[in-house]
Amino acid sequence: MKYTYNKLVRDKIPEEINHMKGRKATFRIMDDEEYAKELNRKLLEECNEFIEENSVEELADVMEVVEAIMKLKNIQLDEVRKVQKNKRNKKGAFDEKIYLEYVEEEKRNLNEEKELNKSWRKI
Q: What pLDDT shows up at residue 123?
């Protein structure tokens, strides 16, 4: 039986599979462009798993992917924290649990409509 995954996995997964009796993993090493795309897909996968389980383990997986993206893009944690602090100072954090229901505008706002119609917002 052949099970097709076609997805980014942690470094030791093929080795684990190959040590199991009757199992053999076939894999390849990606170039940076494909790796970046697969990291984005993996981030969505891990975020969805976290949403399903809300566990520390799944949150750790999200963080692992975020750190891999940072490493690939040569982004330092202190740079991220600086941007985070600036955004927090400008727009606030999520401490007050504010849920925006709607905004009324006198004129049609195409930028607002485009933002609200993004496919990932439909989830």
A: 64
